[in-house]
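protien #1 (seq + structre)
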Amino acid sequence: MSQTNLETRPNPNQDSAPSNNSLIEITESTHNIILDLRYATENNIIGRPIVNEYRCLLHPDALALLERSIELAKHQGLRLKILDAYRPGYAQESLWAYCSNPNYITPPEKGSPHTRGIAVDLTLVDASGKELDMGTEFDDLSQNSHHVNASVSQQAAANRYTLLGIMVSAGWDYYPMEWWHYQVFNAQKYPLI
C-alpha cells in the first residue's frame, strides 16, 4: 500500500482528533474491490471531472472498517465497488456550487466526512462484477435515494439492506438519505484535509 501524507488544517471544533492524518491509497490490486471513482470522470452529476487524480484515499481508521466490509461482502459472494472516498476541498466546492442542498451536499466551510478522509460511497457487485440493483443511480439527489423508500422495488430494497448490513456490521455509520454513503462515527473529530 502506498501512503500519501496530505497537509491538514486544524478544526477549531475538534476535541481529541486521531493523531494519524495520513491517507492510504486503496487499489484494486491491494484490496479485493472495484474502483469506479466517479468524480475523476465525466460519469457524475456534474458531467465533468471534479477531482484531478483517479486515486482512492482513506484515513487509516476508515481503511480498517473498509477491510472488514470487504471480508463480510466476500462471505456473501459479493464485492464492493467504490465510487468516492477522500474528496479534496475544491471538489466539495464544485459539488456545493452544483447543488447547495445541505440534505445531500455538505457546505464546504463545514467540511464533509469525505474531505476528512473518513467516508466512502459504494455499491455492491456480484461474482461476475455486475452491480446489484439499488433502485437509483449513485448521487440521485432525491427521496428515491433514501435508505427507506417504498418506491424502489423489493429487490432493490433487499440489496440496500444487504449493503447496510455489511457496512454497519463492519462498524460504519450511515447517512439515511443516501444508500451509498458510509462514514466513521464521530466524523467531526477528524480534521479537514
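ok now protien #2
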Amino acid sequence: MLTPQEKTIEYLIQQFSGSGEVKMITYRPERVASPVAVDKIEALESQGLAGDHYKKNGGKRQVTLIQWEHIMAVSSYMNIDELSPLLLRRNIITKGINLLALKGKKFSVGAAVFEYTGECHPCSRMEENLGQGGYNAMRGHGGITCRVLSSGSIAIGDAIVPLV
C-alpha cells in the first residue's frame, strides 16, 4: 500500500476506476449532413472513421467523443426532457469514463487505439440545434477530439480503456 507521499499527482493521473463503454456511434458523410447512427464502424489509422467527412490523412480532429453524462447535463441546462445525441454532432457517445481524464493519453475504443488531442468546443450549430443558449449550455461539455493511432472495429457496447 502506498503512503500519502507516494500518491503524487502523476500517480493519481494514472488511476482509473474502470473502463467506459460505447453507447452510440455516428458519422457524417458530408460537412452539413445530419449524423447517421450505426451499430459499428471502422476507425482508420491516421484518418478517422470510415465514411465520415472528417476522414482524411493527418489532423487532430479525426474523431470526436462526448460523455452520455454530459449530454444529460446539457439537457438539464436547456430544460429539455430528452436530448437526442444526434443534435450534438459527435462521433462516439461514451458512458462511464471521464473523457477529460484521458488528456495526454492513448486509449482503446473497441479494437482501435486513439490519442487524445484536445477538447471539442461547441460551434454555432449548437444554437441552431438546441435553441437559444445551446452554445453556452455546451461549453465545458463538448467532449474531446482525438486521432486514430491504430485501425480497428468499434461497436456499441465496446470498452473504452486508458492505456497507461
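The helical segments are 9-13, 68-77, 125-130, 134-138.
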